[in-house]
Amino acid sequence: MFRRTFWFTSGVAAGVWATTKVNRKLRRLTPESLAATAANKAIDAGQRLKDRAVEFAVDVRDNMARREAELGDALGLNAPVDPELPAPRRYAAIENRTNPKYADRTAHSYNRNEDH
Hints:
The structure is a single chain. The protein is mainly α. It has a domain at 2-77. 62% of the residues lie in helices and 0% in strands. It is built from 2 helices and no strands. The chain has helices at 2-28, 31-75. It is elongated. The termini are far apart.
């Protein structure tokens, strides 16, 4: 009788274990669970991609600055400026007639047909 009880209990335990495993697997395969798993994996992949993009951008900036310095040295752009050179001239794009600087000019515009 003890043997029958042992095997009956073993069979019940195996059945409960198998049923639990199957129910867990079925819950993982529901559409909601699959959607949540896919969303989590997409978020993880996006984060990894973002991290790699940031690393790439930092590498590009570093190499760009290094190359710019190399080109500046090769072209002499990084050399000290000679203080004896005159300052660059600046021209007004639009003439300001209210400025006292332009007060000596005539008030009328130039007509190129007057000379003929």
